[in-house]
Task: structure prediction
Amino acid sequence: MNQTLLGLENLDPGFYIIFYTIISAFGLCIGSFLNVVICRLPTGESLTKQNSHCVKCGTEIKWYDLIPVLSWIMLKGKCRSCGEKISPRYPIVELLNAVIYIITFYFMDFNPQSIILCLFFSLLIAIGFIDWDTQEINLSLLIFGAALAVLSSILTSVLTNEISWFSRITGALYISVPFFLIGQISGIIIKKNTGEFIRGIELGDTILMAIAGFLIGGKAIVISAFIGIIIAAICGMVNKHETGESKFAFGPFLSIGIFFGSLFGEKIIDWWLSMFI
Ligand SMILES: [Zn+2]
Result:
């Protein structure tokens, strides 16, 4: 595993403590912003204009009640003015984002690709939670993801060349093409039975896998899809057993898959192939 942060060996342990403290604080703050995105984007509210306010009583939340995680603990998960319960999802999103940043820099070192991946993982948190809430992958988030993928291809081709263009282009197609075909064919079958064209795999999921594939390359996206589909299948079966409902959001599971696929996908595929040689 990569332990040489910034490519420098034998750095003072104090450096790592300071580095990861800054990364954690940064991750928590971005996580706090993700909460705003998750709440407001689906309703079309402005992300920047309005200050944070309680969803029940509408009281504006003071700066000292907006400190990531800590404020929620101090307030015992309740609004200061009306006592309405504040969802534990807020501190969970903040912590999740910070932990993801730490894991990413730990395994990938600190370089242009790992920085872009961190931003992309934050985007996946927003995509995953919004998809979970609304059953839809937000288009503006996908556009932001595509911009990150293009930026990554430009930066790495200039600086490190760690992911080849061939890997990026095949990565964009490997999963998105079968997803598109499955969506199309299942749509036709469902239309025959119910009269309504509903894709088994929606376009948002298909585009997400194309963008992620271009960002992380061919091997990594195959593993990402594999992990995502397995987790989705297990959760889907449990969900159907519990609620009888077979439709559920695919995006959160694909997002989990992409996270693990990005960090370990290439290693997993190389290890798997080496078993047969
Ligand atoms: Zn309130």
Remarks:
- The mean pLDDT is 92.
- Residues 13-40 form the longest helix (28 residues).
